[in-house]
Amino acid sequence: MKHSCVRNYLIPAGICLLVILGILYYYFFSAMLPSGSATKFVYIDNDNIDSVYAKLTPHCSPHALSGFRTLTRHSSYGEHIKSGRYAIKPGQGAFVVFRHLKNGMQEPVNLTIPSVRTLDRLSAE
After folding, report:
1. CB-hemisphere CA count at 13 Å for 22?
2. What distance in Å separates the CA atoms of residue 64 and residue 35, rounded to the nearest whole number?
């Protein structure tokens, strides 16, 4: 009798736990970019949180963007936005992108200066 009582509670509890873990994975850890896309770059200036959402919207899937909004709502990212060039790589989830944006982990910008002899030619280039 005791054995079936434990089984009656453990199986539904285990199923509920699996459903919760699946939902967490879907919103926070599944890929933010659609499959088969290349690395996207997001440029953030002195923006507010709504403009960050607007810059992420064209690149991200809707479920990942809602996970990103949840993470920013429960942290202080809205008051401490760091400007820069941020990469969203294929396979990165909302949690990884959020941590990169919050910690200011920017991607370098390549600047090529041509070979010139005078400052006038440099300014013309």
Report:
1. 6
2. 13
1/58 Cα distance (integer angstroms): 57
Parallel/antiparallel/unpaired status of strands 84-88 and 40-44: antiparallel
Taken in order 60, 62, 67, 68, the sign of the CA dihedral is positive
pLDDT digits (tens, 9 = 90+) for 55-78: 999 989 999 999 999 999 999 898
Tokens 């009656």, residue?
8
Task: Collapse the DSSP code of 25 into the 3-class scheme (helix H, G, I; strand E, B; otherwise coil) and give the result.
Answer: helix
pLDDT tens per residue, range 34-50: 878 899 999 998 889 99
- What is the SS3 assignment for 68? helix
Q: Give the span between the Cα atoms of 59 and 2, in whole angstroms.
A: 54
